[in-house]
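Researcher: Can you fold this with GCB in place?
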Amino acid sequence: MLYPQQNDRRNLLDLSGIWDFQIDPDGVGEAQGWFNGLADARPMAVPSSWNDIYDDIRDYLGVAWYVTRTYVPQGWQGERVMLRVGSANYAAKVWVNGALVGTHEGGHLPFVLDVTGLMRWNAPNTIAVQVENHLLPNRVPAGNVEGGLGAFMRMFPAATFDFFPYAGLHRAVQLFSIPQSHIRDVTVTTGMDGADGIVTVSVDATSAEKGSIHLDGQALPLVFDNGTAQAQVRVANARLWGPDDPYLYLLTVILGDEASPADRYTLDIGIRTVAVAGGQILLNGQPIFLKGFGRHEDFAVSGRGDNRPVTVKDYALMKWIGANSYRTAHYPYSEEQMRMADREGILVIDEIPNVSLQFGGGDEAVAERLRVCKQQMSELIARDKNHPSVIMWSIANEPMPSDFGRRMMGGGEGLPIDPATTAFFQELYDLCRAEDPTRLVTLVGVGGGPVEWLASSDVVCINRYYGWYSQSGQLDAGKTALESELDALYTRLGKPIIITEFGADTLAGNHSHPPAMWSEEYQVEMLRGYLDAAAARPFMAGLHIWNFADFKTAQGIMRAASMNHKGVFTRERQPKMAAHFLRERWSQPGSERPALQP
Ligand code: GCB
């Protein structure tokens, strides 16, 4: 799952642009051979969501077809040719020159298909992607769940999550060439020995050959055994990666001779460690407090489509406000975002789209959801394992037990929890630890949710809306309730705590003195209360405000103008009062929480 790159041995052809597009509500496209061309096509940008482009398809979530044609350079002949789809939400089927080459499920992770034998060298090649985004109860994330969140919030379309169910080719589609004998995968882990960095590089290649790695002026040989080789580099007095100095070393992996390599792959790596000890998160052995946001990939017109100006702007705003981290709520973000996080020194909690999971529908349905969660978790780890910015995997956001309604009304304490549900999450915790022992793992818990599900987390992550969904309009009462829950949770679990969501819907320009709900003043005072509560508690390890920016949701009685307005910035990325408040607070180093007593 190496990110494609252009170099002297590899080639890359980005197919981003304007493709032919046609919806297929009757499902006739395949039988009629639409993969060869669309009879009634409209233009569609790739990447983009289709929903906000044409007025008749805003809520269309069925099957749609994308077709483009491209020449491929003659110079690629003899090489392996791969087609990579960055994100097709939710399920995809791909044809090249009329031949079905593969399928994929899960909307936010890339997939690669080998199309070598199918290329035409003297004529355009037809690439067709069928995308389908039905909201179904057994998908991850789910939709149309009977009695689910969507039903409760009267959401249309019936998502079981609080963001618009955007559909389409959300990230670039690329063709790339790699040599027949090539580097399949590179895995980098880093550690420290005194002031030295220890970088371990594992390389997986197609054939057993020699090779080498190059890092920090050192060259080490690779000796392959059955296609895999490992080398360890000691970087003297390493410049450690972190928010204050996101230093990246260039690692080059070469297959074959250095003078005429069979293949080459380069990547930016950060040398850093992450751990939990003494009730704190340690980055490079030093306690770190996470300041930042839950975000969304969301913008007007482009929807969830990879929007590079917005990506760069968002990182600039995170730096401006003094944030050092965010969570990829509630799905994996683009690889461009991960690369920006590496470069800008922003720590990431990396989440799969397991949002608002429910346990209804019988054992088979639950087993199917677990299968999809595991697949997405493995694919995410494979994609993001080399990013220094990624410090923690999140296996779920706000899963809900079947008695959630009762728990939400209070009195959840002491209610028995079905051990099968705890085992469900344990499988995901175990998978992360087996596939990546170098990072932390968490599950983001809902207010009133079972504490049992949090017990295996390295860091306890909770979303809380005291002063909004409960104690509405009563900030003091909300703060008191928050404080007593935090103390009880730490007493029970003894692990560092991050509040991964808290916030208030706020209409920019709406003012109220004294503060009232939906006003800018109320948002500021609510955030102040949570920041103060954390600042008095040494076991707090971070605060992520919900949300970085206002974002689009389905329509419903809870969402004015189909938007969640809890942004600290508007959807257009203009600051609300809260943004200035946070910038002020977050510019005071060490003010986040008291130091732990030794
Ligand atoms: C939550 C969810 C998030 C929602 C948020 C809200 O707990 O995790 O997806 O958008 O609450 O604003 O209601």
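Model: Folded with GCB in place. The two ends are 43 Å apart (CA to CA).
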